[in-house]
Amino acid sequence: GDRVIEYNLWPLVHSGIIRIRVPDSLQARLNSQIDALLENDRTPSHALFLQGEIKEGKQLTVRCPDEEYKALLLASCEKLSRAVLQQDSGDMQLALDQVWTVHQKAGDFNPLHFHSNARSHFGFSSFLHLRLPPQLNAGQQLCAEDGEGRTRGVTAFSWKTGHGSVADRLECPGQLECELAEGFLYVFPQWVQHLVYPF
Q: Which of 22, 75, 92, 189 has its CA 20 to 30 A from that of 84?
């Protein structure tokens, strides 16, 4: 007969990424705050500190981040650090370093890059799609027949370069494409490389 084989599986991964649904009320308030930043000609540009190839859009410094958003970010970092370390984060102190906005327009993109911070040699980064342009939507990822159409405007995490078929080596793919959806906050270790495709 059929023999039952008992087994354990330990995935060989370096770290993790966490995704949190932002409350609708917070998302609406953040959109209003960002709209005010965009309308203010004195809002400082953050472009000098970023890798983005943003020619049509803007990258703006957020000097006074929303308090509820700060609390959500720090709580998310705490959850991710506990999950990755598999223990309480102990003496680790979490603090916000910088917040900025990217207003990506058609043709703009962010090449493969990672972040750093001024407070520590390690830390977390995050991104949140507050408002997608009308030409981008989750359906395009499901319906596109070509790979390029599927990735238009998509943010992707990349932790290894491809060398042929991963199936031939029984490896997990080295890239994770995020869903094109508003209101999801992604938090990840700052060393994780990521990019945003043009649309």
A: 22
Q: What is the pTM of this model?
A: 0.84
**22 neighbors 127 (Cβ within 8 angstroms):** no
DSSP string, 151-176: HTT-EEEESS---S-TGGGT---SEE
pLDDT under 70: residue ranges of the chain: 1, 5-12, 89-90, 138-149, 162-167
**Segment 66-89, tens digit of pLDDT:** 999 999 999 999 998 888 887 776
User: Hunting for tokens 């020619």 — which residue is that?
Assistant: 55
Predicted confidence at residue 164, as pLDDT, reads 56
Kindly list the distances between the CA atom of residue 120 and the CA atoms of 15, 70, 96, 99, in Å, as whole numbers in the listed order: 18, 18, 11, 16
Q: Is 185 helix (H, G, I), strand (E, B) or coil?
A: strand
The upper half-sphere exposure of residue 78, i.e. CA atoms within 13 Å in the direction of its Cβ, equals 12
* Closest among 164, 162, 154, 143 to 184, alpha carbons compared: 154
